[in-house]
Amino acid sequence: MLDLRAQYESIAPEIRAAIDEVLAAQQFVLGPRCEAFEQEVAQACGTRYGVGVASGTEALELALHACGVSAGDEVIVPAFTFIATGSAVTSLGARPVFTDIEPATFNLDPSQLELRITPRTRAIVVVHLFGLAADMDPILALAAKHDIPVIEDNAQSIGASYHGRKTGSMGRAGCLSFYPSKNLGAYGDAGMIVTDDEKLATRLRTLRNHGQTGRYLSTERGWNSRLDELQAAILRVKLRHLAEWTAMRQSHARRYDSLLADLPGITLPRVPDDREHVYYLYTLRVAGRVAGHNPGNDPGGATRSDIVQQRLADRGIASVVYYPVPLHLQPLYASLGGKPGDLRISERAAREVLSIPLYPELTPAQIERVAQAVRDALRD
After folding, report:
1. Maximum distance among all Cα pairs of the chain, rounded to whole angstroms
2. Which of 169, 241, 272, 332 has a CB 3.0–4.6 Å from the CB of 46, allowing a cystine?
3. Band of pLDDT at residue 295, cut at 50, 70 and 90
4. Rounded distance, CA 56 to CA 53, Å?
5. Gap between the Cα atoms of 169 and 182, Å rounded
6. 47: exposed, middle or buried (Cβ count in 10 Å: 0-12, 13-18, 19+)
7. What is the spatial distance between Cα 85 and Cα 5, in angstroms, rounded to a whole number?
8. Over the stretch 137-191, which tens digit does the pLDDT of each residue have?
9. What DSSP assignment string belongs to 200-228?
């Protein structure tokens, strides 16, 4: 799915020089490289402030806490996303309220929101999934009507845009992950919160550092969640290449579109005219089941997505289902009473999605080989 070694080899001298500078300076936490990276990412996201933290998950936790979410509150989140979006809510003692998605974009469906707002709703988390922005205008309008802050989970979509506005810049705060697999990936865990709110940025800097407002003076319970200088230095190098890498991802996606366009039984990624997709993942929908084919305990048979995935694996080609179990059906949230059929669009997506390799260093021959393997699997 991803060749991190190929990316490293293309920028190895720059990376080594950046690491050596940190080692020579011997300052490793909350130093000048972190501060510079915060400013650079904020500018790239179209915001005034950036606050570096230890991971994308903690970025969500800190942002929610700083926006007033606490034990007993409710936070609306999409059901079709990575578990961290929900666990960031439960880590604060709050209750995630799961909502369904749009079938075409996999993002939160604005038409489902008002039904889930209660007097206990304290935030809405919008995930920009797979590299594509959610439909933000109706979400922001509804949130403003009810005076509810919107937190953008922008872990997968740095550089994406909606009506010309960058993801992460439209809500009260935007949360980024620099996990190694991301479009802008660290060599370990790292994250950031971006915002236009100066008071919020100041509070987040306090919270990430044990709640300290002065040396050894803590005014509230905080986190130990600081972006270290080594990761900041590495990410500053990689940020200089991000626009080029994004253009390559988009070019590869267009090639896949061309090679797979005439295939029956699959749906290719859809990009609305008002958005720019940065293709963290290139995700197909493969609808249907095949009765009698490795059915296991399911009388309906295996999903066609499962069969295509196996056929690709037989040819040595990676593919992944992101995400096979929606959040409302996760064992972690069994106590909330979610059951199959509650959020049908999310559940159907979980049965049908299949992501195939897409990263900047893919060669034309590799793209054609993957596409041909998909074609052969579907034909069979």
Report:
1. 67
2. 169
3. very low
4. 8
5. 19
6. buried
7. 29
8. 999 999 999 999 999 999 999 999 999 999 999 999 999 999 999 999 999 999 9
9. HHHHHHHHTBTTEEETTEESS---B---B
Interval 109-122: pLDDT, tens: 999 999 999 999 99
| Residue 245 identity | W
Answer yes or no: are the C-beta atoms of 249 and 242 closer than 8 Å. Answer: no
Query: Which tokens sit at 89?
Result: 């809510």
pTM (whole model) above 0.70: yes
246 vs 159: CA distance, rounded Å: 8
Sequence-distant (6+) residues with CB within 8 A of 237 are 11, 14, 15, 18
> How crowded is residue 171: how many other Cβ atoms within 10 Å of its Cβ?
27
The Cα–Cα gap between 351 and 286 comes to: 8
3 state DSSP class of 312 = helix
CB 99, CB 127: distance < 8 Å: no
Side chain identity at 183, as an amino acid letter?
N
Q: What are phi and psi of 290, to 5 degrees?
A: -120, 105
What digits encode the pLDDT tens for the residues 156-165?
A: 999 999 999 9
**Which token pair is 67?**
């926006």
In sequence order, the 6+-apart residues with CB closer than 8 A to the CB of 93 are 70, 71, 72
Show the DSSP H helices in the chain as ranges: 4-25, 32-45, 56-66, 83-90, 136-146, 198-207, 229-239, 242-260, 304-314, 344-352, 364-379
CA distance linking residue 45 with residue 161, whole number of Å: 9
Instruction: State the burial class of residue 73 (Cβ atoms within 10 Å of its Cβ: 0-12, 13-18, 19+).
Output: middle
SS (H, E, C) 257-271: HHHHCCCCCEECCCC
Instruction: Tell me which residue has tokens 């197909």.
Output: 284
Residue partners of 261: CB distance under 8 A and separation at least 6: 268
**Of the candidates 85, 87, 146, which has an alpha carbon nearest to the alpha carbon of residue 113?**
146
